[in-house]
Amino acid sequence: MPEMVGDWRRLWGISAYRLLIAAVIAVLLHLPASETIIDLGGHARLLRVLALVAATVSLGYLLALLLRRPVQPRRHAWIQVSTDTLLVLLLLHFGGGVSGPFSILPFLLLVSTASLLRGKSAFVFVWILLALLVGEPLLGGMATVHPPLGQLFIYVLALVAVAVLADSLVISLERGNRLALQRDAEVVNLNALNREIVQHMDVGVFVLDRQNRVILSNPIARTLSGYRLWTSAPVDLDLVQPRLATAVQQPAQGDSEMMITLGGRDPTLQDSAQTLLVRNIALPRSPYRLLLFRDASALRAREREAQLAALGRLAANIAHEIRNPLSVIRHAGNLLGERVETPDSRHLFEILERETVRINAIVESVLEMARPSPAHSEPIPLANWLPVLIAELQADPLLASMTIVIWEISAQLRVYADPAQLRQVFWNLLHNSAQYGVAEDATVRVEIETVRADKETVMVTLRDFGSGLQPEVMERIFEPFFTTNSQGTGLGLSMVRELLRINGGHIDCENHPQGGVLFRIFLPCWCLEGEE
């Protein structure tokens, strides 16, 4: 399609150029002093009519091309070349031959032929034209005074040279045009690819011009900046984020990295303040530069998770190595205790037994958290299963005095989880409430409510009536080995989170407005066909 469009443009251009030449010749031949300007010989009237006819034909053909595009440009190129050859030969024949004023026209004809036909097709007309030009004077035509053979030979050589050069020039121009079109397509595709890459990067990206205007951005950068009035037009960085614009304008050597806290009274910002890690990258020999955004709090959270994961693996290895010696120590203590009869010594062996059991429980918890078994999920009807579970758990001495209230649960409400792992989740949460949810009157009360969060999720809430948690404690409550109790292991809630993750759920925690701590457990819902 681009090649066909190029052929039509070439046809229009040469037709317009032919019209110009024909019009100029017609004007010169019709001037009162035309015979003093051009030697017309005895064919002045005939040449005037011929030039006028050529101009009229050129104008009509140009109008036909402009008004209605023909179907086959190649055919019209042959028609134009044939017509031009006939007109040039007639002008030469009646205008003095190669020694006359129209001897330049064959050179122009060769250039237009090379442009329209190119290659072997163009040289067919070249050799036809040369044969006619050489044969006509030898046969006694074209002029009363014939040019010398040497002049005719040089003229023919000049025509051949012009034909070769014109054909080479046209081929080079076409090759250059094709290469330019190919490069343009590659640049367009590369720009589209770069934009697609920027849009899907996991970091925020701003591309700034010399006026500090954002000309390209991706969704993450637009979200992190807090600006809400994005359009396709470039926008000043001062409007997007004034604090960022101020920081970027500070002089820096090469690439720079900075921490910027967003927030304040700017109405274009998001409600919650956040800290961004911004990298300013200057692009060499380019009027643009890049700003890369990362949420500093998210980075710190990922680093903390990586550290905790490494710590968990280390603790699991250590626990594995401790478990076997601990079993030997416990067994040896039991054997020694059987041989001791004094009450004081037996009390010491009871302490030894109790503490080894406690250490072994910590080791088992670490190993279970580090290498959890896969979930064997099944539908669990909470209305029947949960009260039975709570009754079994309250057989534990630590939970026996706790008041546990289960609000009414719909009989159709079922979750899809591993019963054993879900039992461990409730056991850990209730033990946590027994230790930290003590009310001012020294009682422990827990309320459990179960509702449908959405079509695919069930939410179970456990609320105690204790003093609540401090913000710094709330932030780290699910971290392994974090505890505010010197006798605790710090593994209970982290194990809860891991077990829920294995079962396709999750948990969050917050202080209740009326006091105490509220845990929300989200689990997959098991729905029968036809249930909403």
Automatic annotation (TrEMBL):
Keyword Transmembrane tagged: yes
TM region positions: 12-34, 46-67, 87-110, 122-140, 152-173
InterPro entries: HATPase_C_sf, HATPase_dom, His_kinase_dom, HisK_dim/P_dom, HisK_dim/P_sf, PAS-like_dom_sf, Sig_transdc_His_kin-like_C
Domain (Histidine kinase) ranges: 317-524
PROSITE patterns in UniProt: HIS_KIN (PS50109)
Lineage top rank: taxon: Bacteria
Catalytically driven reaction(s): ATP + protein L-histidine = ADP + protein N-phospho-L-histidine
Enzyme Commission number: 2.7.13.3
Keywords: ATP-binding, Membrane, Nucleotide-binding, Phosphoprotein, Transmembrane, Transmembrane helix
Molecular function GO terms recorded: ATP binding
EC top class named in words: transferase
Keyword Membrane set for record: yes
Protein name: histidine kinase
Species, as recorded: Acidithiobacillus ferriphilus
